[in-house]
Amino acid sequence: MSEINSQQIVNTAVTLVERYIEGKRNFSRANLVNADLQSVDLKGSDFSYADLSEANLNGANLRGCDLSFANLSQANLQDADLRGAMLFSADLRQANLKGAKLEKADCDRNTHFPQDFDPAQVGLQIKEG
Length: 129
Known about the structure:
This protein is mostly loops. The chain has one domain: 3 Solenoid (Pectate Lyase C-like). The chain is 7% helix and 3% strand. The protein is built from 1 helix and 2 strands. The chain has one helix at 13-21, and strands at 106-107, 125-126. A two-stranded parallel sheet has the order 1-2. The longest helix has 9 residues, at 13-21. It is globular. This is Pentapeptide repeat-containing protein.
């Protein structure tokens, strides 16, 4: 069987969920601007370099996800589970992080958070590169 289908472009919430159910976890560089992923279970997925700006991830399970270099600006991450996620150089400016679980998630000095957000207060670990 050819590998052509393994890297199909994921650019809708429906396609993403279908691929996840099929066992796919590599969604690197996916374009999911404004996607409605409320309460979706996506734990363990690779969203590095993905564009999730303005996405609704309210209550989503993103445990252990790689969100390095992802654009999450203006995303709704309220009550999302981001425990153990990698947020290196991620853009979370103007994201709603109210109630988000961030314990043991990793970030670095290049991770951009909303104004007045204290990463240490929510259990984020800032790694020195």
